[in-house]
Amino acid sequence: MKRPGYDGGSTLIRPYLSGTMAEKSITQALRNPTPVRQPARTAKAPVQAGEAADRMDTSFLETLIGYNARRAALVVIAEFLPRMAQFGLRPVEFSVLTLIGHNPGITSRQLCATLDILPPNLVGMIKHLEKLGMLEKRDHPTDRRAQGLHLTETGKATLPLAEQTASAIEIDATSRLSQAERKTLISLLRKVYLPAA
């Protein structure tokens, strides 16, 4: 039996449902829920270079001449750069110096054709060799539009030492090859880039 004045408790409950701080807090919480904190991620151990290399499948690349030639060239260059620094020469600059030394009076056009490099790139190399005091330009005997390139006394003194160093670098970089294998490798590479006879 319902008691007089008793409304089943709604009078007691209503203050908690309308216009109270509790309602405002609940509404605010629903509108702006507190972000759920994600569990901290465990840092992954960095992959070591050796481990990464061990995981790589390079079997297809190893069938390509270009890939193998490039890898072999990098081994030689790694030896070349520090040991030729005493002469101030990088690989292509050494090639330019060698060609001029063995072909006095060679022109820039001939150098570009022989080494397959662009004229703008050669200009910087020529200037570098001139700055080192190894190179000088002279009037060409038959072509007034061209200048012949010659080694100075400094260049002539430097070239034999640089060539000896380059030969030693090649031997050290290919120490796992016999002399016969080294000659065979050079012969095969020349067959690739030289025009057919």
From TrEMBL:
<dbReference type="Pfam" id="PF12802">
    <property type="entry name" value="MarR_2"/>
</dbReference>
<dbReference type="InterPro" id="IPR039422">
    <property type="entry name" value="MarR/SlyA-like"/>
</dbReference>
<feature type="region of interest" description="Disordered">
    <location>
        <begin position="33"/>
        <end position="52"/>
    </location>
</feature>
<dbReference type="InterPro" id="IPR036388">
    <property type="entry name" value="WH-like_DNA-bd_sf"/>
</dbReference>
<dbReference type="GO" id="GO:0006950">
    <property type="term" value="P:response to stress"/>
</dbReference>
<dbReference type="InterPro" id="IPR000835">
    <property type="entry name" value="HTH_MarR-typ"/>
</dbReference>
<feature type="domain" description="HTH marR-type">
    <location>
        <begin position="62"/>
        <end position="194"/>
    </location>
</feature>
<protein>
    <submittedName>
        <fullName>MarR family winged helix-turn-helix transcriptional regulator</fullName>
    </submittedName>
</protein>
<dbReference type="GO" id="GO:0003700">
    <property type="term" value="F:DNA-binding transcription factor activity"/>
</dbReference>
<dbReference type="InterPro" id="IPR036390">
    <property type="entry name" value="WH_DNA-bd_sf"/>
</dbReference>
